[in-house]
Description:
elongated; mainly alpha; Bromodomain-like
Amino acid sequence: xxxxxxxxxxxxxxxxxxxxxxxxxxxxxxxxxxxxxxxxxxxxxxxxxxxxxxxxxxxxxxxxxxxxxxxxxxxxxxxxxxxxxxxxxxxxxxxxxxxxxxxxxxxxxxxxxxxxxxxxxxxxxxxxxxxxxxxxxxxxxxxxxxxxxxxxxxxxxxxxxxxxxxxxxxxx
Length: 172
């Protein structure tokens, strides 16, 4: 059974993890000089939305709407994982087979119609296949996938526990 206290503790943990990830993305961009590709930007946007939902979850005065927050967290974590998995696919595919990539995002924004820019944001551009950073031998896209998987599992567990808790309250 989920209590308001355990819900707040879990949302705090998820928020701290998410803020750490957001901070890391800005560190990589502004301190290390790694420019984010379109898929990286979409992953960052998904992470930002997860941070917002964690904050909203923390601001709830009761658990009445907590299940809805968990659904939003599931959706944003799922979207982020789709972008991360797509980037992993582009990075692990042989370069000659990843020819469907578009030019770099800066070129797209400057010279191409908005439909191509949107396609790059959703499917990746040329630089999405580049691996510019590794930790423990794994590229950033794998670490992002692990973060989004963690958020998916935590949000899913939260949703089902809230569902069980709320159904117990309704039956008593």
